C-alpha cells in the first residue's frame, strides 16, 4: 500500500508532468504563430499555421491555418472547415476565397467583411496529404488514398492539434465544409463519436454541409432537372439525359474508363446546349470564377468536347506561391514546385463517390449531433433539389417531425433563402443567389446562416 508521502510525491509528479506538457504545447503553438502575412491589414486577432505530423515513420504531415475569432476568442467555438474535390485546398479555397478573414488582391490582402471568424475560431485543414502544403516524403503515400484513410488521418490530426492547442480542448467544436466534404465531414464526425465512447476528447456540437455529395445517384441525377428547369437544355435533351444516360451513369463509366457510345452522345449534346460559357457552379454568373473555386475533381469530370477556360489572373494561386508568404505561413513545398488549388499529385479512389454518406448523417442525428445541409440555389453541380430530397427522406426514415415548416428566412432586409427543420436536430436551408461556394457568392447571407447554426437557432423569420 502506498504511504501518504509516496502518494503526495506521485500527485506532485503528475502535476509537474501536466505543467511540462502545457509548457511544451505552448512553445509549439507559439512557434506556429503568424506575426503578419505579407500585405495584410492590421487586425486584432491571432493567426497560426503549420504542420501536424500524422505519421512520423512515413513522414506524412497535414498543414493547417487557424484564424482566431475577431473578438473574445476564448468564449467562441472552434470550427473546422474542409473543402472538397477530393484534393482541393481548404486554405486556398475556404480561407482565402470564401469565409476567411482576408482575400488576396494584387500584392496585398483585403479584409473580408463577412468572415466567419466574426463568430468563431476558424481552423482550415489541407487534407489529405498531397493537397496544398500538406505532404508526404514518399510519393507512394499519395497513391490509393481513399475516404477511410482521409477520415482516420483527419482524426489523428485533431487529436495531435489539441495537444498543441489545449486551450481549445473543452470548447464547442463544429465541423463544416462543402462539395466532396459531404464525404469528409460525416465520416470524420462518425469517428469522433466512436472515439468519444472510450475517451471523451471531442466536444462535437454539430456539422454543416454546403452543396454536399451525400448520395451519388440522387445528387448527380438532379442535375438534369436543374438544367431543364433553368432553360439550359431542350426538352428532347432532357428526355435523353433522364432515360438513356443519366449523369450518375456517365460519371460511373467515365471513372471506369469505359464511356459507352450512348453516354458519349448524350453528354456531347448536353455540353453543346449548356455551353462552356456558362459556369455550372453558378448558372446566373456572366463572368468567370477563378480556377481557385473549381472543386471539380469528382463532382464534375470534364465533359465530352468541353475545354477548360480559366481566368488569366488567379490571385490566390499567385499569393500562396510567393516565397515571403510561404515563410510567413511556416509552409514549404515538398515534392512539388508549385502550390496548387487542387492537387496534381494525389491519386484518390474516385469510386468512393458512389458510396453514400447520407446513412452516416442519419447515425449522427440519432447520436444527437445537430446537422445542417445548405444549398446555394444557383449551383447545377450539386443542385438543391437532390439535397432537399435526401434530407426530407432521412427525416421520414428517422421519424422526425417538422419543427420549423418550410419558410423564407431573411438577411440584410432581403429574403436570404428558404429553410425547413426536423426534430430540432436536422435542418435544410437554401441560400438565395448563392453558387456552389456559398460563402464566396453570398458572403452576408452565409454569415447569417452560420451564426444561426452555431447558436442552434432558427434562421431569422423577419428583417
From TrEMBL:
Keywords: Carboxypeptidase, Disulfide bond, Glycoprotein, Hydrolase, Protease, Secreted, Signal. Residues 1-25 form the signal peptide. The keyword Protease applies. GO terms for biological process: proteolysis. Its EC number is 3.4.16.-. InterPro entries: AB_hydrolase_fold, Peptidase_S10, Ser_caboxypep_ser_AS. It holds the Pfam family Peptidase_S10. One of its GO terms (molecular function) is serine-type carboxypeptidase activity. It comes from the Eukaryota. Belongs to the peptidase S10 family. This is Carboxypeptidase.
